[in-house]
Amino acid sequence: MTGFGAGEGPVAGGRLRIEIRTVNHRYFNLAARLPTELLSLEAEVRERLRRDFDRGHLALQARWVAQPLRPEEGRVDLERAKAVVARLRELQSALALSGEVSLELVARQPDVLGADSGQVEVSWTEVEPVLAAATAECRAMRRREGEVLAAELRQRLDLLEQSAQAIAARAPERLVRERLRRDFDRGHLALQAR
């Protein structure tokens, strides 16, 4: 059965959309396109879909409608800071400069402070409701298509039944015609034989 379903919902501070397309296929065959943040959940996605779809080719696409919140983690390179302080003091001594090496001066130096973009943590409990909504919509569409096909098949079976009844009703006429033809053929042959 063919079908389409989509679900959308909040995940990891962003908004995730999952779309499922199905076509008839002899076996269960999943082609999933997931963002990198969801790759670790592919096995759970596959198992959930296998429970809901016995067979068929399923094309699943998940994408971020609104990007998830990425934690910003401050990074301090202490070794780099110590090296900067040592070089600044060395420079201060070599040039006979006065003053102190300040925190602001050290912090402004390249690679002393930085921000690493943290990895987004996505949990199955956040993704599962979005997948469930897409699955339910797809299954409903497949069910509607099945009902339409069933109605079409019932209509065709009814037409076949009506035709069979019409043929059965005319069967005695056919038998009479066959007897007349047989008798005619016998009589015609008898006349030819004379």
Outline of this structure?
This protein has 194 residues and is α+β, with helices and mostly antiparallel strands.
What does this structure look like?
By secondary structure, the protein is an alpha+beta fold. It has 4 helices and 6 strands, in the order βββαββααβα. It has helices at 42-52, 78-95, 103-107, 124-193, and strands spanning 3-11, 14-23, 28-33, 56-66, 72-76, 113-117. The chain has a 4-stranded mixed β-sheet. Strands 5-6 form a two-stranded antiparallel ribbon. α1 links the parallel β3 (28-33) and β4 (56-66). α1 (42-52) packs parallel to α4. The two termini are 70 Å apart.
Order of helices and strands: EEEHEEHHEH
The radius of gyration over CA amounts to 39 Å
What's the average pLDDT?
85
Distance between the termini: 70 Å
Question: Strands, helices and their partners?
Answer:
Layout: E1 3-11, E2 14-23, E3 28-33, H1 42-52, E4 56-66, E5 72-76, H2 78-95, H3 103-107, E6 113-117, H4 124-193
Parallel strand pairs: 3-4
Antiparallel strand pairs: 1-2, 2-4, 5-6
Question: Could you name the key traits of this structure?
Answer:
about 190 residues, alpha+beta, 4-stranded mixed β-sheet, two-stranded antiparallel ribbon, 4 helices, about 55% helix, about 25% strand
